[in-house]
Write a structure and sequence with these properties.
The complex is a heterodimer of chains A (116) and B (843). By secondary structure, chain A is an all-alpha fold. Chain A has helices at 2-5, 15-37, 49-78, 82-106. Chain A has one domain. Chain A is built from 4 helices and no strands. In chain A, helix 3 (49-78) packs antiparallel against helix 4. The termini of chain A are far apart. Chain B has a domain at 694-843: Four Helix Bundle (Hemerythrin (Met), subunit A) (Up-down Bundle). In chain B, helix 21 (703-728) packs antiparallel against helix 22. The N and C termini of chain B lie far apart (78 Å). The chains are: A mainly alpha (116), B mainly alpha (843). At the A-B interface, helix 2, helix 3 and helix 4 of A face helix 8, helix 9 and helix 20 of B.
Chain lengths: 116, 843
């Protein structure tokens, strides 16, 4: 298990997108449920609890992914084996992409009403 | 021509070749139905896929004939509906996926230095499921009962009320049958790539094609089950009236759209990734340098595989989903352009930095680059919600889809065909015919589909069977039809070229393209055992770095060059490092895959004609055949009764605790888990969204019985885990009794679950709530029965000596199933009893 947690293990190739995927399902599913159970008044603009929740989760997820990106870069620099350097760097690239994907997908919460 | 008859080989080496040829021989005549070898089955998959391509192409020509002129009455509207539905269905399910899987089945062992895939009987089973499913589905055309609701079968159009005939049933049952094949291939490709690479081929050194196929196979494993679940639910609705998609009964037709596109969008990338894998294999060969940015490509493959699962709602932008939710999917749809762009620039950089030479395969690659980039650009346009609304369901979307799929899959596939044809036949195809074929297809394609963008922008809906001349679409449709027939001419030339080359093609040299891949190091045409000896490889470009490899392989100077034991063998290696871990002994030719697939075909047909007792009997027979198939494993006389290996070699995989079988079971549970999660999604989706869904105030399910069933399962898992721990310490005393007790616990769980269903007095035809509960309970019941049955079988096998401390693998595999059952059971208990009870039902 400790082996899997090592940041140079290829499991991290999919780590960033797994986190992104969970976050994506959570915001889409959460939005659908929230709009079904407690939709904000149609006249309100984007400063609703739903938008704030999407925004906060976006920033928190992005922060976690940024940290993992950095950790993978450091782990790959420390790695003695070429294979580990390879997977550390590629995983870092994928975590970085996941950072961009999270911010890009979450950004519309700034200017769109949630349930219309 | 076969290099194995080389006169310079020593008598010992020649004897080795003869021994391997005897052990790996493919029977002829009726016995050919028992073949399990990946080379033969890969070719069968591809040949069958090619036949379905011709059928799909013929249907396309019928469509283009009908649309060539306004107010045309070449076909009636009902026939047209059947034709376009079957065109899409045949091309997507019976051509694209199977032919690519066939290519992977044929090519992967040769590229990773293995003698076969890890589950050869599963390959054969998958092929027969594909063949029978395809025949059943295609037969509907000739019976004038073909489905007519479009290839994505939207409800309520495909439901009993609006499609009362058998067309939708043919689609739902036939496609589910074919998907068994796709999943079988997906599972074994994943395990084969991860666990049977030749010695030294670490994960970061394996060919890019293998990375692409690994991603494709994993996507099949995760992406296909939502559609399988959707098909089961829709067929249940049609056959028994369970209202999963009927709003009046608490269902929702949009649930079908979600389940379909959860599969359908990844499907596009499932089709594209192998195509891109071919491109990434061929470009370095013809650029005459290693690929630039191997790591970038690996990253792009992983990104594409994941992001493609986050796009499904972009097919549903017009369904009334809130703007913010559509924005999430719009953004994700644009994001997928980034990994595509990475790959494109890697390929262009490789050409730029190399010394490219032009050849027939490269011509197809250049065609791919042009067409796919255009398809990608219109894809980004369609990701924009306002534009998507304007062109939704028009010919613009049809054109985009064909640019992506034909550009991304057909052109690379044909490049691969010309590239690997000499490897298959030992002969070179005709350059002249090939070029004519390319230009006819390339120009014909663009004439058909480039123009179709305009037709769509002018407002032509994609499913209209005719149009009035006042619409102004006449000339565009006529040009598209001319282009379509030009393309058909190109396909005809291609067929002639391939057919003629078997007889008139020049004999191919050992490595006609000066390629780097291991598949060019073997005899041509390939022997059933691929390699006489398996090399140790630590390079990504074996034939460029070790040019003498074909010769030394042929002379048996590498690993596993023994055959005295009479077993079919290949290496089992560490998934990361490529270090040797086991000798994997592979099963030989067998009737069980055919018999199992045949009985499933009977199940399929009897469900079609609503002969349910026959379906039940055929299901039991199929289970019997599958269990009998599993009997011939481990220390069984037809498997590996003698565990002797050559000095210095690792043990046989059945004598270890972590052989590929454990991996196969785990990957299968990815698929199973995807199906289960889709079911949970359906439950929560209907609960949240369906307007007429009614959650009872108190659950109809008996909590004490549910908990008791769960406890029986938990005890069974604890017992099995203890037995496996003891086996790990080489203790097998009490193993048989332990297995029997575990089987009894599984039987107890099953009985209690039947009690739960019985006491609940569900009304599944009246409410979607009860129908979903019933399906969920049946799902865990089937798993409980399977767990019990496999433990019972293990007990028997211990008695026969096929399983013991010396042959400990199978209980580990069975334990994985029980672990899965445990997680699924308790999570389902929370979903269907705890949460509804805590939240309370609606009045």
């Amino acid at each position: 298990m400790r082996h899997l947690l090592s940041l140079t293990h290829p499991i991290h190739l999919v780590g960033g997108h797994t986190i992104w995927g969970i976050w994506f399902i959570a915001i889409y599913g959460g939005l659908s449920v929230a709009c079904s159970v407690a939709p904000p008044a149609p006249g309100r603009d984007t400063l609703t609890g739903i938008n704030v929740a999407v925004g906060v989760s976006t920033l928190a997820t992005a922060a976690l992914l940024v940290w993992l990106t950095w950790a993978c870069v450091r782990a790959s620099r420390r790695a003695g084996v070429r294979r580990e350097r390879f997977f550390g760097l590629v995983s870092a690239g994928n975590y970085l992409f996941a950072v961009g994907a999270t911010l890009f997908v979450g950004y519309p919460a700034v200017f769109l009403p949630p349930c219309l | 021509m076969s290099d194995t008859k080389d006169a310079s080989l020593t008598p010992d080496t020649r004897q080795l070749h003869e021994g391997l040829a005897r052990v790996w021989a493919n029977p002829r005549g009726l016995g050919a139905l028992t073949v399990v070898n990946h080379t033969t089955l890969g070719l069968r998959f591809m040949a069958t896929g090619a036949v379905f391509f011709l059928i799909g192409g013929l249907l396309a020509m019928l469509i283009r004939t009908q649309l060539a002129f306004p107010d045309n009455n070449f076909m009636s509207n009902e026939t047209y509906n059947q034709v376009f539905t079957m065109h899409g269905t045949v091309m997507m399910f019976l051509f694209a996926i199977p032919i690519l899987e066939g290519l992977a089945i044929y090519m992967i062992p040769k590229m990773i230095g293995a003698r076969d895939l890890v589950c050869p009987r599963l390959t054969a089973f998958g092929y027969f499921c594909y063949l029978f499913g395809g025949i059943i589905l295609t037969a509907s055309l000739f019976l004038d009962m073909a489905p007519s609701s479009g290839w994505f079968m939207y409800t309520p159009l495909s439901s009993g009320e609006y499609s009362p005939g058998s067309g939708s049933d043919f689609w739902l049952l036939g496609i589910t049958f074919v998907e068994i094949s796709a999943l079988s291939a997906g599972v074994e490709l994943v395990v084969s790539i991860l666990r049977t690479r030749t010695e030294g081929m670490a994960l970061h050194k394996m060919p890019l094609f293998a990375w692409y196929i690994l991603a494709m196979a994993l996507m099949i494993v995760v992406g296909f089950p939502p559609l399988i679940l959707g098909s089961i639910l829709l067929e249940l609705e049609r056959a028994t009236g369970m209202p999963f998609f009927d709003p009046a009964g608490g269902g929702d037709p949009v649930l079908w759209a979600h389940l379909f596109w959860l599969f359908g969008h990844p499907e596009v990338y499932i089709i594209f990734l192998p195509g891109a894998g071919i491109v990434a294999t061929l470009i370095p060969v013809f650029a005459r340098r290693p690929i630039v940015g191997y790591g970038w490509v690996v990253a792009a493959i992983v990104i594409m595989g994941f992001v493609s699962f986050g796009l499904w709602v972009h097919h549903m932008f017009t369904l009334g989903i809130p703007q913010l939710a559509t924005a999430f999917f719009s953004a994700a749809s644009m994001l997928v352009a980034i990994p595509t762009g990475i790959q494109l620039f890697v390929w262009l950089s490789t050409l730029w930095l190399g010394r490219p030479i032009m050849s027939l395969p490269m011509l197809w690659i250049l065609g791919f680059l042009v067409i796919f980039v255009l398809g990608g650009l219109t894809g980004v346009m369609l990701a924009l919600v306002p534009f998507n609304w304007q062109v939704h369901d028009t010919h613009f979307v049809v054109a985009h889809m064909h640019y992506v799929l034909v550009g991304g899959m057909l052109f690379p596939l044909l490049a691969g065909l010309y590239y690997w044809l000499p490897q298959v036949s030992g002969r070179m195809p005709s350059e002249r015919l090939g070029k004519w074929s390319f230009w006819l297809i390339f120009l014909g394609f663009n004439l058909t589909f480039l123009i179709m963008h305009w037709t769509g922008l002018l407002g032509m809906r994609r499913r209209v069977f005719t149009y009035d001349t006042a619409m102004g679409w006449d000339i565009y449709n006529l040009i598209s039809s001319i282009g379509g027939f030009m393309m058909a001419g190109g396909v005809a030339l291609l067929i002639i070229d391939v057919a003629l080359h078997f007889r008139f093609g020049k004999p191919a040299p050992q490595n006609p393209w000066n390629a780097d891949g291991l598949e060019w190091a073997m005899p041509k045409p390939p022997t059933p055992y691929n390699f006489v000896s398996l090399p140790r490889l630590e390079t990504r470009n074996p034939l460029w770095d070790v040019p003498e490899l074909p010769r030394t392989l042929l002379e048996g100077r590498h690993g596993l060059a023994t055959i005295d034991h009479g077993r079919r063998e290949t290496w089992g290696s560490d998934p990361l490092t490529g270090k040797l871990r086991e000798v994997v002994h592979l099963p030989t030719n067998s009737w069980w895959p055919l018999l199992a697939a045949l009985s499933l075909a009977v199940v399929c047909i009897s469900l079609l004609v609503r002969l349910y007792p026959l379906a039940a009997v055929a299901t039991l027979i199929a289970v019997g055949f599958l269990l009998r198939w599993s009997w011939e494993n481990g220390a069984h006389p037809k498997a590996a009764p003698d565990a002797t290996v050559a000095p210095g070699q690792p043990p046989l995989h059945s004598r270890t605790m972590n052989g590929p079988g454990v991996w196969t079971m785990s990957v299968s549970h990815l698929a199973n888990g995807s199906l289960y999660l889709s079911l949970l999604f359906g439950w929560f989706y209907l609960w949240t969204v369906a307007p007429e869904w009614r959650m009872p105030e108190t659950s109809p399910l008996s909590m004490p019985l549910l908990v008791a069933a769960g406890l029986a399962l938990t005890l069974g898992v604890l017992l099995l885990a203890k037995l496996v721990r003891r086996l790990r310490r080489r203790h097998d005393a009490g193993l048989r009794a332990g297995m029997n007790v575990a089987a009894a616990l599984g039987a107890l769980q099953s009985t209690l679950l039947i009690g739960v269903v019985w006491l609940a007095e569900l009304a599944p035809t009246e409410s979607a709530h009860d129908a979903t509960l019933l399906v969920a309970l049946l799902y865990v019941l089937i798993h409980a029965l399977l767990g019990a049955l496999l433990c019972l079988l293990q007990g028997l096998r211990v008695g026969y000596g096929f399983v013991s401390a010396e042959v400990p693998l199978e209980p580990v595999v069975v334990l994985r199933l029980w672990y899965y059952n445990l997680v699924v059971y308790w999570s389902l208990f929370v979903a269907i009893w705890v949460i509804p009870t805590v939240l309370g039902g609606a009045p």
